[in-house]
Amino acid sequence: MIRNPGPVAVFDLDNTLASTAHRQHFLERRPRDWDGFFAAAPEDPPLAEGVELCLRTAQERDVVYLTGRPERCRRDTLDWLAAHGLPEGPVHMRRHRDFRPARQTKVDVLRRLERERGVHVLVDDDEMVCDAAEAAGFTVVRARWATASEALKDAQEREGRT
What pTM, to 2 d.p., does this model score? Predict the structure, then answer.
C-alpha cells in the first residue's frame, strides 16, 4: 500500500532496528547454530536510535525492510515489527538456499526497488553492504548504534546466512 508517493526508505533489521547481541553466542561456536540464532530473533530488544529514525522517516516516506534473514523467519519478523510499533511495509528476505554475501543480495534488491519506485535512503549496519550500496549510487545512513559482532560480520560475508 502506497501511503507516501516517491522513493522509499529502506531499513535493515539486525543491528539496525533489532539488537542481536543476546544471540551472538550461536554464531561463535563451531559449527554455527543457525537454527538457534534465528529462533532467538523474536526476543531481540529494539534499538532506540534505529526505531526512532524509522518512525521519523515514515512520516515522509514509505518504509521497506531489507534483511538477510531467511524467508523461513518471515512470521517472527512481521510479529516483531508489529510488537515494536514499526511502520508496515514490505519485507524483503533472503530466498531459500541463497547464500551469496549480503552486500550482493541487498544491492540486487535495492536496484529492483530503484526501478519500481526509487530509493531515498538505505539504513544498514553492515559496512560492506553500505560500501556496495554507495558504490552502486545509493544514499546510505550507516547504523553505528549497535555493538559490532565479528561473528555476525563473518557470517554475513562468508556464509551468506544473514
Answer: 0.91
